[in-house]
Amino acid sequence: MRILYSLIAAVTIIVLSSLVRAEASAETASPVIARLEVSGKKNQAEVTIRGPFKIPNYTIKSPDNGRTVVIEVLGAVLADGGVKIKGSCALINSTTASTTGRGVRIEIKLGHDAVYRARSETGKIRVRFDRFQENRKPLAKTEARADSREPLTINQVNIERRNGQERIVVEMNRQAPFRVVPGEIGPAQISIRGAHLDPRIPAKLQGDERSAVGAVTIRQDSNRVVIQAERDSGISTTAIREGNRIVWLFSPKPGYDQNRVPSQVITREETVEIDGDQVAAFLSDIPMQIGAEGGQRRFTGRRIDLDFKDADIHNILRLMSEIGNVNIVTSDDVSGSITIRMRNVPWDQALDVVLRAKGLGMVRRENLIRVAPLDKLEKEREMAIARRKQQIELAPLETRLIPVSYASASDLSARVKEMLSNRGNVSVDGRTNILIIRDVAESLNDIEELVRSLDSQTPQVLIEARIVEATTQFNRDIGIQWGGDVTMSGPTGNPTGLAFPYDVSLAGGAYSPDSPTAGMSPFVSRVAVPNFAVDLPAAVGTGVGGAVGLSLGSIGGNVNLNVRLSAAESSGYIRIISSPRILTLDNSSAQISQGTMIPYSQVSAQGVSTAFREAKLMLDVKPHVTSDGGVFMEVKINRDEPDFTRTSARGDPTILKREASTNLLVQDNHTAVIGGIYTRNAGQNTNQVPFFGDIPIIGILFRENKERDERNELLIFLTPRIVNREEALIR
Predict the structure, then answer these.
(1) pTM (predicted TM-score)
(2) Nearest to 252 by CA among 210, 281, 217, 206
């Protein structure tokens, strides 16, 4: 009988052990994600991630301001056949899932900017997307928009226990978005933006000794309400929305000991809106060097609160490792305890302060941090420097010939000397333009790379200047000549019949031997005495204007009248284009000119001598090619020409001078207008007989009118072209 009881007891123990192992393996097995469900419409969408997990542990973030959302389900794996995506939505362009070292990564690409909210339930994670309007307000339901006019108020906050779970219930007057920062260790926090507290709500609630929720602090922080609940690291949280209520669930994890003492306070701020678990993550490639007191370090880690008394330094470092998601290795001589209280500081700054307080230092390589006493790290550093120097001293010397193609080897030798080690030297062979360098192999490689970078083609620049000059002229001259004679005398048979005056003679006297008389007589081209009373002719001649004459006379020649009208009008358009070009090297001045030497007389004590003055077109430029392909130029352009229409008393011509001098930056093969001059000379001149010229209508017989209008426009264009751009700009 005893044997039978013993067998039954043994079988019972084996069965119970198997059940316990099976349950443990089931609990520790990674949840498998096999299906994603997508639903929604044009402006809203919902993605449901299904898997065999009781309380999912996940992170959610948006790397590009709402267009892409990345969800990481920690500790999960994908099914063997891959994830199946069921359904579609116009707001969601694509959904992909992949396995990473931390779990399953699900990437959702949206067609428009959207705000998202996530909540976790047993066996699934729901993520809802609401599209942003152009005014950056999210689309919501009609009743939600109507309710948003009413101020958001927190009416009541209670701690409840239902179905074996602790929960905090937040009563509001309407629905509102919220943000949860649960973390893995320390108190969890929920933030409700735009809300205000009812004055009757107490600032602090206290749970009982057996409750999973400790003290609950409620405070108004600017335009938001923050609710912070203390809990142990073995308690996970989940927040859901039920109408106008937020239900915050606190559940113990498997294997949680109800008799554990709550841990110290750690508060973490998140940067995305979620409803559910979130883990801290901080990764940086910036090396944390020892001895950094001389510079200002920038701390970018997640902000935390710390409150410890006589805590072991190793536990603090392990806590920092978990918060920052980094690996921390300590040496054997790191020991001691520390008392610390910090609020709202980056975790990496807190780590730096803790290490300095204990005389410790750290060396970081990616996400691996090694912690050791500062004196030990300094000794290691000095030993590494000594080993490096010893390696250089013992390394064999090599000789290398480096040919130089475009630069001068003598000029490069000065740059090479700066990179030589204490044992190295350099010499130059001027005939072949080769650098002869003797040094250790490592220095030779660096020097050769430097020489290859500096020994590049010097850019060649073709500068083309275009000087465009346009001139418009208009001249008009209208003149009149008239006169005659009247004779009353006995010989002519028409005396006055008076004793005095018996003879009367009247003749015009406003003429000179140079007065034009062509047209006054059909028989001769020039009349000796035209007897002009008004002599105001226009300047006409061969190829210029015209004139017409009229002569009236009596049979006896007693009365004669001569009239001559003359008019001249001229207009013209002149366009002169000058285009000098010159090719030069970078940072080298160049000049090109073309013109004439004009002689002029010069009177001195030795007598009259002949000197020469240049009248030329000249382009003087010094270009510099920038690294982005632009050309900076110092430019001077002259265009001088003689004007033989304006001469001195000795007949020397006037020099018309046009000049532009400037500095400018122009892109390769682009044209810039560097200058322009526009002038207009207009005038009107009237010559008339006094008094008679001012008589209306009749006055035109006593005056000459001249009009002149001259316009001149000068434009200067400049175009640089880098001839060997591809070869010269390669760095």
Answers:
(1) 0.45
(2) 210
